[in-house]
Design goal:
With 256 residues, the chain is an alpha/beta fold. Helix content is 39%, strand content 23%. The protein has helices at 41-48, 88-97, 103-116, 132-145, 162-179, 190-196, 227-255; strands at 2-12, 15-25, 30-34, 56-62, 73-77, 150-154, 182-186, 199-203, 210-215. A six-stranded mixed beta sheet has the order 5-6-7-3-8-9, with helices on both faces. Strand 6 (150-154), helix 5 (162-179) and strand 7 (182-186) form a beta-alpha-beta unit. Helix 2 (88-97) crosses helix 3 (103-116), helix 3 (103-116) crosses helix 4 (132-145) and helix 6 (190-196) packs across helix 7 (227-255). It is globular and about 50 Å long.
């Protein structure tokens, strides 16, 4: 499925958050959104996913929906949002329960995503028994259980330690490559952006505008072993946002 944002601006009362955004995400593409704190990345993601209607402009989706898709646009947040009284298997099955599908198919979906995300042996564990990385892996499995056309991810790794982030980053890259899913990925972490995305959309300080779109030409499957080539791209992204990021942080500090 393809997403397109055309001439989008958005305000919360008198606060202008986004201004004149034009972005297209092609089917099967992974696009990262980066920018200074408060630049409207999460707002833009909500508009792309249809959770929020823009003040001006339009957002639409086009293209085929995968066979067996139960929820075309599916979110993954930094908050794992797992039900503590349900097992790993139960949390994943939760998103299927409201859909009228054959119990055999429902079971097969759960089995499939448990295997995809290396969670099969933890199927009977409860969230309190899992590490943060494992809980986020359950969140990813739950998202894939509905076979989405587009995955919308808002800082999914930001609450995790550096080692766990690195492990999940590799798993994300492998999973996205194998499934060919369309992904929009909001992050403050420039390493995540260059490791996962085909293109990185750089937003300016609020009100967020598209400052630049940077292509990452190295195949995603090869990036784990080509750090030296990724480093200049990461440095370029930092140069694009550094000054505005410092100003945005000062503004947030002064407001507290």
């Amino acid at each position: 499925m393809r997403l397109e944002i055309s001439g989008v601006s958005h305000s919360y009362d008198s606060l202008s958050v986004l201004e004149d955004i034009d972005v297209a995400v092609e089917s099967g593409e992974i696009v990262a959104l980066i920018g200074p704190s408060g630049c409207g990345k999460s707002t833009l993601l909500s508009i792309m996913g249809g959770l929020l209607e823009p003040t001006n402009g339009s957002a639409f989706q086009e293209g085929d929906i995968p066979d067996g898709c139960l929820n075309p646009l599916t979110y993954v947040f930094q908050d794992f949002a797992l039900l503590p009284w349900r097992s790993v298997e139960g949390n994943i099955a939760l998103v299927i329960n409201d859909h009228k599908i054959d119990p055999t198919e429902a079971k097969a979906r759960v089995e499939g995503v448990l295997a995809q995300t290396n969670l099969t042996e933890f199927r009977h564990a409860f969230p309190k028994q899992l590490s943060g990385g494992m809980r986020q892996r359950v969140g990813i499995a739950r998202a894939f259980a509905v076979n989405p056309a587009v995955l919308l991810m808002d800082e999914p790794l930001s609450a995790l330690d550096a080692q766990t982030r690195s492990i999940l980053l590799e798993e994300f890259a492998d999973l996205f490559r194998k499934t060919g899913i369309t992904v929009v990925y909001v992050t403050h972490n420039l390493n995540e952006a260059v490791r996962l995305a085909n293109r990185v959309v750089v937003l300016s300080r609020r009100p967020g505008r598209v400052k630049e779109i940077v292509d990452i030409p190295i195949p995603i499957a090869e990036r784990a072993t080509r750090d030296a080539e990724l480093r200049p791209l990461q440095n370029r992204l930092w140069q694009l946002i550094r000054d505005e990021a410092v100003e945005a942080d000062k503004e947030l500090a002064d407001a507290q």
